[in-house]
Automatic annotation (TrEMBL):
InterPro entries: Rhodanese-like_dom (IPR001763), Rhodanese-like_dom_sf (IPR036873), TST/MPST-like (IPR045078). This is Sulfurtransferase. The keyword Protein transport does not apply. It holds the Pfam family Rhodanese.
């Protein structure tokens, strides 16, 4: 399917809910994520774990708190989840798509899977619009995912690239964390507060309206056009705390019609353990 919007509305999902190739995934996070999923989730949705399915966690100093798994391991995970190349994947979380839903979307796009969308507003909006809910743990039959590629297809940068960009006035480093974390006033997760030199703060929450829905593509395009003015696409880098929430802004950019810029997966969690 070509020109598929990266965002799907609740009513649109309802209309396709019986499609045989539809695969819905709940990617909420937190200490009780799986238990909360079992208590209440969208009907037929399967739980995906950020830490074990979408990351390969080892040493935060080398790769950050949520480094990507190997390309090969992620392809195997897709098969175990019941996704094949013909699957229409819809992803949601309980944070307006701001957390692991956007990360899963980025990873699927990065293996070449185009038929993937994030549910606008996530669990809360779906529930408010009376989408059918379930408390039965769901599974899809395993498949074999066959990619046309052997490596990630969306642009990334690594800590040495960010080091150079931090000293280059022609580079744009965008930190999507909330302003108090960027300003070093508070740091609830990582060891040190602050931000990467030369970074600008554009909190991911600015992608959403007061109802927790993505702003329109036109509004987002105006917001980011102003931010990106006079910067080459190859010199724009997005990051967050651990390479998860930054994907929410990459999703917003794709929704607004921009090319997806560089993601620094290691993000502040890696940088702050190495470069301060």
């Amino acid at each position: 399917m070509q020109n598929l919007s990266p965002i799907i509305e609740v009513d649109e999902l309802m209309q396709i809910s019986e499609n045989q190739n539809l695969r819905i995934f709940d990617v909420r996070t937190g200490s009780n994520a799986k238990e909360n999923y079992i208590k209440k989730h969208l009907e037929y949705s399967v739980f995906v774990d950020l830490n074990s399915d979408l990351a390969e966690i080892d040493d935060p100093k080398n790769g950050g708190r949520h480094p990507l798994p190997t390309f090969e391991d992620f392809i195997k995970t897709l098969g175990k989840l019941g996704i094949d190349k013909n699957s229409h994947v819809v992803i949601y979380d309980d944070k307006n798509g701001a957390n692991a839903a956007a990360r899963f979307w980025w990873m699927l796009r990065a293996v070449g899977h185009k038929n993937v969308q994030v549910l606008n507003g996530g669990l809360q909006v779906a529930q408010n619009q009376n989408y059918p809910l379930s408390s039965v743990e769901e599974y899809y039959p395993e498949t074999k995912y066959i990619s046309d590629y052997q490596d990630w297809q969306l642009p990334q940068v690594w800590i040495n690239d960010v080091k150079k960009a931090s000293q280059d006035s022609d580079s744009m480093i965008v930190d999507v964390r909330e302003s108090q974390r960027f300003d070093g006033i508070m740091e609830p997760i990582d060891l040190v507060a602050g931000h990467i030199p030369n970074a600008q703060n554009f909190p991911f929450i600015d992608n959403l309206d007061e109802k927790g829905l993505f702003k329109s593509p036109e509004v987002l395009r105006n917001l980011y056009s102003e931010l990106f003015d006079n910067y080459e696409k190859s010199k724009i880098i997005f990051h967050c705390g651990s390479g998860v929430t930054a994907c929410h802004s990459l999703l917003a950019l794709d929704y607004a019609g921009f090319d997806i810029p560089n993601l620094y997966v290691g993000s502040w969690s890696e940088w702050s353990r190495n470069e301060i």
